[in-house]
User: Fold these one by one.
Assistant:
Number 1:
Amino acid sequence: ARQREIDAMRQLEARAGLVEALGQLIHALQRERGASSIFLASQGQHFSDVRRVAVEVVQEAQGRLRELVAAHLAPSQGASARILSLMAWVLLDLDALPELRARIERQALSAHDAVAAYSTLIAGQVELIFHVADATLVPGVSPLLVAFLHLVQGKEAAGQERAVGSLMYASGQCVDEEQQRVIHLIDSQDRSLQVFSEFADAGLRARWEAHQLSAGTARLERLRRTMCAARPGGPLDRQQSDAWFEVSSARIDVLWDLEVALMHHLRDACEAQIRLAEQELQDSEGMLRRLRDNPPPHTHAVERFFDQGAHPDAAPALMDEKESSSLLQLLQSQSARLAGMEAQLDAARRALHERKVIERAKGVLMSRLRMSEEAAFRALQKTSMDQNRRLLDVAEATLALSDEAFAQLAAQDAGQPPG
């Protein structure tokens, strides 16, 4: 059993490499998305060279990911059908990238549609990271995977904010739909990065909090307020386009540095867990061997009844006091570690479950009531505040609604009496 645990940890170590490659590809795609949005919004006048360099970085990261995906196809890696299916979708999306780039180069695509296409592609990769984390509940490692997942989610929301904001500033006009999107993305970042802070270690948390108090963040907040407070249809200063891209990119770079550091912690945690499991295996084997050589007293007591040559007053061999103490220490240390691991796993399960339920509730509202993602989340959030209930509870109640309840809500939204 202990050896199987070690094998599972080695599989997890390999999956950590896959997660790292996904993070690198997402980072590169985010930069290509931002450059492409400015390129299209400025009618090809800006960021042509930046976009070309970004494409080269994406191609390099894409090649690395494909190699790791190929390695994970081996049965020994233990990838589930769900994870393999998500890998397939990610590769299919990447196969469509050349056509997307060609349309952007010809300016045959709006900046808004380009941002949406890149965001959809990245969303599939974030979902793959989620399922790797959800399928890999290992003490000492799962909390770091939860932190990594939410850091990637927060960084992706920051990347979309950079792209949408770049589009608005480069076009020189405030569009209501894009303005609402920015507001939603700011809120999404705050939620994801809060979970990251809860599961990350104190050092990474302190680095993020220090950045939140920096001059760069203050500049970003000023430009955010300009966008969010502008009148829909009103003008925006085109000259602020470069400044917006600079400060929002600086925020993303800080998040990327945290992601790299967290990935190192994740790898170190995997190696530490493997070393610990191997040491415990050796300790257990040695302890069992010594126990066999020095069995407990009651076994000799039984032997006395069947050994005709034994003297009636013969005393059974006693386990060495030091040996007994070592066994007790081993059992106590392993029990304490198991209790701590279970607490870690419970926290990781709760965070992953909450993310899963809220995303499903948003999806139900989007499909049943034809809501946008922003409107669906605002509806859940407003109900949570109005009823003073946890967002998770509201999401679970939403998933439990009947078809008739959704029909009534749809009729109310359409201004019709419920049927």
Number 2:
Amino acid sequence: MQLLYSTKMWLKKSETPLAKKMMSLINTIRFLEVPTISIVHQTLYWLHISIEKFISNVMRICYWTPMFKSQLSKSGKRFYLYSGMPMVLGGVKISVGDDVRMSGISTLCGRSSNTGKAELIIGNNVDIGWQNSINVGGRIVIEDNVRLAGKVMLSGFPGHPLNAEKRAKGLPEEGHQVGDIVLKKDVWLATGVIVMAGVTIGEGTVVAAGSVVTHDLPAGVIAAGMPAKVIKQIGEQS
């Protein structure tokens, strides 16, 4: 490896004719391109996408979905899981309603020091998007028609204590750091929203991208910011 690295550095830095010719040849090979033949490569692209989708659907139907549903205490009708299977950690009890769509690139986690007592309840017609992290301290309830965009975090517990000595010893968070989270019907959390422990978000409320929700929000409002604050009632003119 050292010889390979030394040779690479010599080729990049040397001003000798041999090094320059070799570097030129390497770059010529490195940036070779095959001409695009429209009808040929469009057909190949279509075949590639079709095969990829077919394999993905077979895996979804026959492998990922039944494996994940085996970990649920309740599974509703027409559950649609895509992009693999969510990671389930910490002994969380999960129930899922009807017509739920969930990205497999998500993490559903129960509090490690409370194994078997954490409960995640997902209602009907709920979307749980890409890279969501749902950390259940005691109980998280996601009611009907809720939409969670990508990279949303529901943080029912922090995972570590505030005391530095306890944290260094690998001890879990303390009870006062843990809280339930409730998302009422028709809530929409945009990309990157974080909801902290102990928060209830009222029916129909929309939280703007990148916001951090640290306190309860009322029904029927748009909220934004860090921490999130109500900026207007839904239906109000700008």
Number 3:
Amino acid sequence: MARAYDEMYDDAGSPRAHCTGYRDWLEAQPAERLAQKRAEADALFHRLGITFAVYGENEGTERLIPFDFVPRILPADEWTVLEAGLKQRVRALNAFLADVYHDQEILKAGRIPSEPVLCNAQYRPEMQGIDVPGGIYSHIAGVDIVRADDGRFYVLEDNLRVPSGVSYMLENRKMMMRLFPELFSRHAVEPVEHYPDVLLHNLKSVAQAGITDPAVVLLTPGAYNSAYFEHAFLAQQMGIELVEGQDLFVRDDVVYMRTTRGPQRVDVIYRRIDDDFLDPLAFRSDSMLGVPGLLTAYRAGRVTIANAIGTGIADDKSIYPYVPEMIRFYLGEEPKLANVPTWILRRPDECSHVLANLKDLVVKEVHGAGGYGMLIGPAASKAEIEDFRARIKANPERYIAQPTLALSTSPTFVEQGFAPRHIDLRPFVLSGKDITIVPGGLTRVALRKGSLVVNSSQGGGTKDTWVLGC
């Protein structure tokens, strides 16, 4: 595998121009102070309850997400490139969703094959013909960006259903400002703390026409969900009600919230529940998390759901390889951000190539998430590779494969001192009347030496992300 691009140092070991000021400050810090600050951060995160539930672990369900105080720093010109590419991509993805649930022009034109779309478990026939406000399906998108050894940014995957992690972006910045306030007087770091206000404005902007002061709620599965901290945090920051399915009901195709003052109409639901559990009358009948009749109210145009039901078809990994073609088809433009080269294993020739090179590739389940259902060939044992080989041969359509990228690294404070660790970046793209991106995002870091898996569920940590002003 090629040598990874270092976000802070060039090949000669000198700090990159935009990192010089921070590097000089860091080298002047006594080791004892930095160790003390890390302990202080851990204690604060514990006190605030900033944890992540990890299912299936014997030691318990709650784990503190490790926080690294060495920020990932992006210069203004690089952010400009990323921002333009992200807006273009999300615009095309929303156009694709509107199309596949209406006229399906891209399928009729043969630019994307019909089978992986219409036969996909994430495609929701119930959404066919429904006009959603503003034609927007993905109001909140988390697009995972990596930088490869050539220094270029690539889109690793799109998260359009219920993307998570923005609360950690906000808390990481608050933590950095508390631990090292002097850094923010020395560097022109673009702010992120206004994200909840931007999100609320975005959600209100997609309410049904004619409603002057829309009532917005955040629908959570409840306290046992892995991202419940984030649900409660965002609701509190936006000043809206955090509700569970039992707090809502539908009457005459209108959604209401139960309150001590009687029923209150709800206009916009920011849902953090998967499609299957939203409405037991339309989807899984055994769901105790959803709202009976919600789909009927939605189809009647009496409530906005963010993100829309059925957005999962656009972030399924089997659809990911076609996003550049969506950009060309709907926007008439060339993609500003490239995909990672991808083999589609439902194609026999590509499947044969992958089976012959498993030890060098990353293989992913098309419905997988959180770093589960993945094979990283160079880090896998022979037994793991053979197990995956059998799985692929049995159901090739369930997998895609990609080269093993040398994800860029950032200096990270570990037990032995500072060492490079692989990172990615998840910016959050908000679509309403306009497309808005708060400068930065969540930088995730693979804390184990040599690991390429940054997911919190797989032991990854997080960093503050600085976008420097011009």
